[in-house]
Task: inverse folding
């Protein structure tokens, strides 16, 4: 059974750096057909893809947030880490990680998803 | 980035109704289009990938069609458990989602 679980702080202050960890089980981060993406959802709003990491350690990032994001993985620990710098109240959202099927064009579809973790940005 | 426009943004229908949601891409994305269901307080769930392929275990009342820029998601006979928000997502380029369609029971 494939599962993903997000962990990290529930509250961060403006200008701080957010670090989130996704711990996966049931598949390997070295599987060439699979990767892991981070996706977020502000309260009551739509989903927004943030970043993806491939098995070969190649990364791709949202165009609008690229300067603030870093994604990395530790295959031996089955963990994917996302950092987002200079947090702002508008970054308040539920952050999800998801296993991602890799397509010829890059990240494909997301299945399954973790339960998500709500991060609030407030002083 | 490729923009995805979903319509309607909300929809009210009766049990047993046929429900259709559309998604339009700002440029040709071939069949690189997926559909998700999100129930309140839950993570999204993949229903359809590559525009028309039903994910394993998803009921056959769900279906998808389209290619290029125009796509359709259909529930053939609405069930009470289908109440959710539905999202389309393209992956021809960096992934982007539609704004969602909130489906309610009339």
Result:
């Amino acid at each position: 059974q494939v599962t993903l679980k997000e962990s990290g702080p529930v509250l961060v202050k403006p200008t701080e750096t957010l670090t989130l960890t996704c711990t996966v089980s049931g598949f390997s981060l070295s599987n060439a057909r699979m990767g892991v993406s981070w996706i977020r959802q502000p309260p009551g709003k739509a989903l927004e893809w943030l970043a993806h990491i491939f098995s070969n350690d190649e990364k791709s990032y949202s165009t609008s947030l690229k300067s603030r994001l870093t994604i990395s993985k530790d295959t031996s620990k089955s963990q994917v880490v996302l950092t987002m710098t200079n947090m702002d109240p508008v970054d308040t959202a539920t952050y999800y990680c998801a296993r991602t099927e890799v397509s010829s064009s890059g990240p494909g579809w997301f299945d399954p998803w973790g339960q998500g973790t709500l991060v609030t940005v407030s002083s | 980035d490729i923009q995805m426009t979903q319509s309607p943004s909300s929809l009210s229908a009766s049990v047993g109704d046929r429900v259709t949601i559309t998604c339009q891409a700002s440029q040709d994305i071939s069949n690189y289009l997926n559909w998700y269901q999100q129930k309140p307080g839950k993570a999204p769930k993949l229903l359809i990938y590559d525009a028309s392929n039903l994910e394993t275990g998803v009921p056959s009342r769900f279906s998808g069609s389209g290619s290029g820029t125009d796509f359709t998601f259909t529930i053939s006979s609405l069930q009470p458990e289908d109440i959710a928000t539905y999202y389309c997502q393209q992956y021809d380029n960096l992934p982007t989602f539609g704004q969602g369609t909130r489906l309610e029971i009339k």
Remarks:
- The longest strand of chain A covers residues 93-103.
- Chain A touches chain B through 25 residues (CB under 8 Å).
- Chain A has no helices and eleven strands.
